[in-house]
Write a structure and sequence with these properties.
Shape: globular
Oligomer: single chain
Distance between the termini: 55 Å
Biased composition (Basic and acidic residues): 109-121
Region (Disordered): 1-24, 109-131
Strand content: under 5%
Number of domains: 1
Order of helices and strands: HHHHH
């Protein structure tokens, strides 16, 4: 038998029961040495995209996933570009597919033209007082 629920509906579980990725304390499910060039670049790109959208807390889960995919694809492209710059052969077809996927992810990160911007409380109140 379970304990009766308290009135007021269900609450979000406390932070300690959520994933470290959800909490924002880690970038990956398992601990990863974040000192590698690729890990640092991924982190930098992800933070830049999040900053462009007003911070991670203002982004939907789907938008956060799209930002992660975009950052990872960019890192992979940069690795291929580095190899080519060093004189190594690369799979040009794979490179082209990667660039197309980056473009697709970038478009997912741009809000639709008819979408209304999300306002914080100050922005909402400012809009009400000027109208």
């Amino acid at each position: 038998m379970t304990a009766p629920r308290k009135p007021g509906g269900s609450k979000r579980p406390p932070c300690r029961s959520r994933s470290a990725v959800t909490n924002g304390t880690r970038l990956y499910l398992s601990p990863v040495d974040g000192r590698t060039e690729q890990a640092r670049r991924f982190s930098d790109l992800l933070r830049q995209v999040e900053d462009e959208h007003g911070g991670r807390e203002r982004m939907s889960v789907a938008l956060q996933a799209a930002a992660r995919a975009f950052a990872q694809l960019c890192v992979e492209r940069e690795i291929m570009e580095q190899a080519r710059a060093q004189g190594q052969d690369i799979d040009v077809e794979l490179y082209g597919q990667l660039c197309d996927r980056i473009d697709r992810q970038a478009r997912r990160l741009v809000p639709p033209k008819d979408a209304k911007p999300k306002l914080d409380l100050r922005g909402y109140l400012a809009g009400r007082t000027t109208s």
